[in-house]
Amino acid sequence: MTVFGGERRVPGLRREEVAQLAGVSTAYYTRMERGNLRGVSESVLRSLARTLKMNDAETEHLFDLARAASQGARTPRARPRPRLPQAAARLIDAMGDVPTVALGRLGDVVGANALGRALFPHLFPETGEPLNHTRYLFLDDRAHEFYTDWEGSARHAVSALRLIAGRDPSDAALMTLVGELATHSPEFRTWWAGHTVTVHAAGTKAIRHPVVGELTVTFETLALGSSPDVKLVTYLAEPGTPSADALDLLRSWVATTPTSTGREHSTPQSPARGQAKPEGTPNP
């Protein structure tokens, strides 16, 4: 049994301790720690993941990085833009009572039903294409007000991009997006350098909606077998809560708001004069 002793200046294992527990030399571990994973065997990677108590996302990312390092540098390449299949678009529209937004791998909004557009009005301008959600988070001041925990949402977006970069570092669109965000957002630049990876496929989000006020929604991310680069994100509120009442109010507005033909970018309207707004609702 290996025992490590002595006073610690910082918590955690020393580099030589990690190397010993992983069954490699300190020099070899130092090389890996500096990002040189070329030729590292699967057994060493799994041993390192166990030693560092990596979660599934971190372990997957480690293997992706090692695979990319072994393949060597690749020329940046453009991937086809993600598209929402027609059958999936019809499915989203059929889920009229559930706010649903379809997102591409980099945060491109590729579809939504009417309630999804109403729940995230900033992403759907009256004219032009929907906004990229990742750009919106970091480059649009409205995002800081819209998301109660903006930092949490933004950090999860960075982690998602890190996972994509590990799988396909030659993705030209990813490189362009990362460069743009790193140039214009000091928060993104700092968090990107941290190399943190997590999978955030379900959970809760607290938002300050410009019409119905504050509400908390639970979300689930659904994969599309016909289009792996597109995910459907659905949102609901816990029954019997003020958030559920706010979402019901949003549903009633969507049902009574005229929609345009073709691609709909309608947003909820303010209550009619004389109609009471829910307590705590800010002015839109």
Automatic annotation (TrEMBL):
PROSITE patterns: HTH_CROC1. Residues 255-284 are annotated as: Disordered. Residues 255-272 have a biased composition (Polar residues). Residues 12-59 form the HTH cro/C1-type domain. SUPFAM superfamilies: lambda repressor-like DNA-binding domains. It holds the Pfam family HTH_31. This is Helix-turn-helix transcriptional regulator. It comes from Streptomyces coacervatus.
